[in-house]
Design goal:
Blueprint lengths: L2 H5 L14 H6 L2 H46 L7 H10 L2 H9 L11 H15 L6 E11 L2 E11 L6 E8 L19 H17 L1 H9 L4 E8 L15 H11 L16 E8 L8 E2 L6 H16 L13 E2 L12 H4 L5 E5 L19 H19 L2
Parallel strand pairs: 3-4, 3-5, 5-8, 6-7
Antiparallel strand pairs: 1-2, 2-4
Helix pairs in contact: 4-12, 5-7, 7-12, 10-12
Bound molecules: zinc ion.
Pfam families: Peptidase_M28
EC number: 2.3.2.5
Protein name: glutaminyl-peptide cyclotransferase
């Protein structure tokens, strides 16, 4: 049956205990019968009118956003920052805060379901809660089978304004990989500095650096808001397979695919509300090469290239000898399996900001703070600050 059959209640006309029979009509004068019939027809028309208008307004609330969300996403235009805004944005990124306050507390072992994981979650939550923009932080805990038995995972999703129709997503994973210990240094644990402590710290610094601007944006009730997603369980426990990897992103993408948005919609879900899924991973080593992975988001990759060049020309990047060092379109080293995959398969537009080739110390106990390149981390954060500001029109 059509949707309308569920919306309508069957029209019930109560005739006061019995039908209007022929003998009733005989007892009534002709004029009164005519008036009675006229009133009955008018009442029927009014009831029908109410039902029809209810159905029509239902269509507006449920169907139009499906069209609008997609159309608005495709036609979304970034705001180009002026040279003075660019200087202000670059200055708001605080390298010391990024390193000391945001990054250091994440540089611990943080396997899913452990105290380390909980400590990092608390760090992220308390950092975002301390900001004035007013983030809504949601935890998404779930249990899933792994080669090591059932494990409890927890994604963390922070939304600037949950009532906003569309979202720009900045994403990274906060879990660390379970690596076998080194027999020569059994006390060493895998810290995953680039994988992905640095991207998490960069996202916290972006929220801190843009705090005032994000707060002002929220007051304007814009069509697009910012959402920060910290995935758990990106890493596999054993050999990487479709089942043993991407635990958090698979879970969240499925939940978003079945959660109506705007609330009550029967046609659109939180997935359609994602304008762009920007995934940060394997960042923090010197001289990263970041390639464009998807044609349908190439115009947004161009904005990253432009931001790097403009910041360089204004002398706002450090240890950055040429104007285009990180973001390059003319290279492609093949696809990468990462947290974007479950969203990509569901049609979400992806911008994958990942160093390819991977850092030389990838998935080794040497992925530590000592091997990070601080100017690169600060430069990338400045570039992303410009990108976010331009996307959201801050
Ligand atoms: Zn990894």
């Amino acid at each position: 049956m059509s949707r309308s059959s569920r919306r309508y209640k069957p029209l019930q006309v109560n005739h006061g205990g019995g039908p209007i029979s022929g003998c009733d009509r005989i007892r009534m004068p002709r004029a009164r019968v005519l008036i009675f019939c006229l009133i009955a027809v008018l009442m029927l028309a009014v009831i029908l009118g109410i039902c029809l208008s209810y159905e029509t307004s239902g269509d507006h609330s449920n169907r139009l956003p499906a069209v609008d969300l997609a159309k608005d996403r495709l036609s979304h235009k970034p705001v180009k920052t002026s040279p003075s805004q660019l200087r202000r944005l670059a200055a708001q990124v605080d390298g010391t805060r990024l390193w000391e306050m945001h990054l250091r507390p994440i540089l611990i072992e943080r396997l899913p379901g452990t105290q380390g994981s909980l400590a990092v979650r608390k760090h992220i939550t308390s950092t975002l809660s301390s900001l004035s923009a007013g983030w809504t932080v949601d935890l998404d805990p779930f249990q899933a089978p792994t080669p090591r038995g059932p494990v409890t995972f927890t994604n963390l999703v922070a939304t600037l304004d949950p009532s906003t129709p569309r979202r720009l997503l900045l994403c990274c994973h906060y879990d660390s990989k379970a690596l076998p210990p080194d027999a020569r240094a059994p006390e060493k644990v895998f810290l995953g500095a680039t994988d992905s402590a640095v991207p998490c710290a960069m996202m916290l610094e972006l929220a801190s650096a843009l705090d005032g601007l994000l707060g002002a944006l929220k007051q304007q009730r814009p069509a697009v808001t910012l959402q920060l997603v910290f995935f758990d369980g990106e890493e596999s426990f054993e050999e990487w397979t479709a089942a043993d990897s991407l635990y958090g992103s698979r879970h969240l993408s499925e939940w978003m695919a079945r959660t109506p948005h705007p609330p009550g919609s029967t046609h659109t879900t939180l997935l359609q509300a994602v304008d762009l899924f920007v995934l940060l991973d394997l960042l923090g080593a010197p001289d990263p090469l970041i390639a464009n992975h998807f044609d349908n988001t190439a115009r947004w990759f161009d904005r990253l290239i432009a931001a790097e060049k403009r910041l360089h020309r204004q002398g706002l990047l450090t240890s950055h000898p040429a104007e285009q060092m990180y973001f390059k379109k003319d290279v492609y080293l093949g696809p990468v399996q990462d947290d974007h995959i479950p969203f990509l398969h569901k049609g979400v537009p992806i911008l994958h900001v990942i160093a390819t080739p991977f850092p030389a110390f990838w998935h080794t106990l040497d992925d530590t703070e000592d091997n990070l390149h601080r100017p690169t981390v600060e430069n990338l954060t400045r570039i992303l600050a410009v990108f976010v500001a331009e996307y959201l029109g801050l």
